[in-house]
Amino acid sequence: MLPQPHARWLEGFLGAPIPEERASTCATCPMIETDPFGRPAFPADLKCCTFFPALPNFQVGALLADPDPRLDHGRSRVRERIRAGNAVTPLGVSKPRAYHNLYGRGGFGESTALRCPYYRDGGCGVWSHRDAVCSTWFCKHDRGHFGFAFWQAAMKLLIALEHAVAAKVAIELGIPGDALEGLVPADVSREAHPDYYDGVWAGWLGREEEFFVATSERVAGLDWAQAADWAKVDENELGSGLRRAHAALSEPVPDVVALGKLERLGESPTVVRLKSYSPYNPIDLPRAAADALVDYEGRPTVDLGEIGLSEAMVRRLADHEILLHTK
Q1: Which of 117, 138, 230, 304 would bridge with 164, disulfide CB 3.0–4.6 Å?
Q2: What is the SS3 string spanning the chain?
Q3: Whole-prediction pTM value?
Q4: What whole-number distance in Å separates Cα of residue 76 and Cα of residue 68?
Q5: Number of Cβ within a 10 Å radius of residue 186
Q6: How far apart are CA 46 and CA 64, in angstroms?
Q7: Residue 274 phi/psi, 5° resolution?
Q8: Is residue 19 predicted with pLDDT exceeding 90?
Q9: Which residues pair with 267 in a beta bridge?
Q10: pLDDT by residue (tens digit) across 172-181?
Q11: Is 234's pLDDT higher than 90?
Q12: What is the pLDDT confidence band of residue 327, given thresholds at 50, 70 and 90?
């Protein structure tokens, strides 16, 4: 589900298998399906790929060295960007300033102006070597808001690891440390600021592709312990935050029914759709059960079986914040 080295690092941190997200199927995107209740949908020629990943140097190198023909488009586009020298630094191939200025103004999953440059024909051209943000984004979560919180924490940790590892291997390969201090990749441009670009690349100028491949070779066997040491994970909140989020995945179903805000997004004669933790992942209930829920406030959760809600459905209600955990 995750690319390397993210999967190796995350498994090393957890000491356990990485949670699966079976409902978030990128190859057969569930978000482009027509929805009877008007749930937000993504155009088939965009999906959720309205984001410009910042590929760390070792992922760029791994992509360039990967012979997989399914990644030809991504490799070609990355090579174009390296030749152009726009937002290309020893830390990786990032998003240019123009994209930064567009992103955040709305249009996620909607605007062709935001479409990822590595996206083609419904697929990802850098899939096996994507960055931490793309690796940890899911439109739906098997464990609802618990899963969402876990992946948000995982993303923050993996981004920290990416930054620390990319800087470490760049310096080991001869890039001056002071050239990386305060570096803003989006503002690095070979065309606009050639002298600055040349100084950043130092002895690797003109051999950027070779440099990226060398970084990937250094990271290929890097285990969790070494990466964590470089990123000082044990000394910051990122590690403890992810541990809390992972532990919360084992949170039991509430013993007593405490209802959240029962906001109806749509209904039919047989089904009611309720708002959940995410606009992309609402929950549908049989109408009779949805109508009866308010009568069970304060009663034992097991009593919900009286209105036809199975243990699995009660779990989903709790995961989607229809049922609340009270302390």
Answers
A1: 230
A2: CCCCCHHHHHHHHHCCCCCCCCCCCCCCCHHHCCCCCCCCCCCCCCCCCCCCCCEEHHHHHHHHHCCCHHHHHHHHHHHHHHHHCECEECCEECCCHHHHHHCCCCCCCCCHHHCCCCEECCEECCHHHCCHHHHCCCCCCCCHHHHHHHHHHHHHHHHHHHHHHHHHHHHHCCCCHHHHCCCCHHHCECCCCHHHHHHHHHHHCCCHHHHHHHHHHHHCCCCHHHHHHHHCHHHCHHHHHHHHHHHHCCCCCCCECCECCCCEEEECCCEEEECCCCCCCCEEEEHHHHHHHHHHCCCEHHHHHHHCCCHHHHHHHHHCCCECCCC
A3: 0.94
A4: 12
A5: 17
A6: 24
A7: -110, 145
A8: yes
A9: 272
A10: 999 999 999 9
A11: no
A12: low
Q: Which two tokens stand for residue 13?
A: 């941190």
**Across 111-115, 142-146, 224-228, which has the greatest mean pLDDT?**
142-146
Tokens of 263: 């906001």
Q: Hey, which residues does 259 pair with through a beta bridge?
A: 323
| Number of other CB atoms surrounding residue 20 within 10 Å | 11
pLDDT in tens, 271-308: 999 999 999 999 999 999 999 999 999 999 999 999 99
Read off the tokens for 229. Answer: 């040491």
Cα 225 to Cα 235: distance, rounded to the nearest angstrom: 13
Tokens representing residue 41 in the block: 């949908």
Distance of CA 296 to the CA centre of its chain: 37
Token duo for residue 29: 């995107």
- Residue 278's pLDDT is 93
